[in-house]
Write a structure and sequence with these properties.
Layout: H1 8-21, E1 23-24, E2 37-40, H2 49-59, E3 68-73, E4 78-84
Parallel strand pairs: 1-3
Antiparallel strand pairs: 2-4, 3-4
Length: 92
């Protein structure tokens, strides 16, 4: 989501709440596009702001027990990815 979008504060707060609860993993053993769902805090998710907020809702509730996070270093910034692994996927 664009950090200038009016829904950004709501998205950032919700994302960080879930990130606090998620299990931190050091590596992801499958491509993110094979996960049940994933969102980056700062990266382009390819979704509308409303879809991003709806996906955060999907990651909460019963699914939160499976929620993982991974911090990714790029050349220019650090980003956090929240994801729900495919049910058979393994993470370390």
């Amino acid at each position: 989501m664009d950090t200038e979008h009016p829904l950004w504060p709501q998205y950032e707060a919700r994302f960080n709440e879930l990130a606090f609860l998620a299990d931190n993993v050091t590596e992801i053993s499958i491509p993110l596009n094979e996960c049940e769902a994933y969102l980056c805090l700062y990266g382009e998710n390819g979704l509308s702001p409303e879809e991003e907020l709806a996906l955060l809702d999907k990651m909460d509730g019963p699914a939160a027990a499976r929620l993982k996070k991974r911090t990714i270093q790029t050349t220019y910034w650090e980003d956090t990815v929240l994801f729900l692994p495919a049910r058979a996927a393994k993470t370390k």
